[in-house]
Specification:
With 134 residues, this protein is α+β, with helices and mostly antiparallel strands. The protein contains three helices and nine strands, in the order βαββββαβαβββ.
Length: 134
């Protein structure tokens, strides 16, 4: 059901510093920052030949990322994103198998302008999974 790895998301306490590290130290192509108010984050994408790295920073006081950074003040891997051909079919199949979809279960538009869903980390070896319709 899952397709290719779309990105690995890393929560960072300082988005500008993290972006500079990837661009200047690692020599990576780094996008401009993009505010995602509906998700409570600001994102930057690092483009790699085979995938992307998403740098995440809290946007606003109610950002769900604040709790993660409270437990991991230096930052760290937040989630992995896999592509699926049909997000509603994937959701229904996963729910039928007992997986928990976070939120209200309805896809939201993600940073790439495509529908996304998140799956509970307790159902996937402690890893938060994002599904993005390809």
């Amino acid at each position: 059901m899952i397709g290719r790895l779309n990105h690995v998301a890393i929560a960072v306490p300082d988005l500008a510093a993290a972006s500079r590290s990837y661009a200047e130290v690692l020599g990576a192509q780094v996008s401009a920052s993009q505010a995602m108010p509906e998700h409570g984050v600001t994102v930057v994408f690092v483009t790699l030949p085979n995938t992307k790295i998403e740098l995440l920073h809290p946007l606003g006081p109610d950002s769900p990322l604040r709790g993660f950074l409270g437990k991991n003040p230096a930052g760290g891997i937040h989630h992995v994103c896999y592509e699926v051909a049909d997000i509603l079919a994937a959701r229904d199949r996963l729910k039928g198998q007992g997986a928990r979809v976070l939120g209200d279960g309805e896809p939201k538009i993600g940073a790439h302008g495509k529908p996304v869903l998140f799956l509970h980390p307790k159902d996937f070896c402690g890893t938060l999974i994002e599904l993005e319709q390809a």
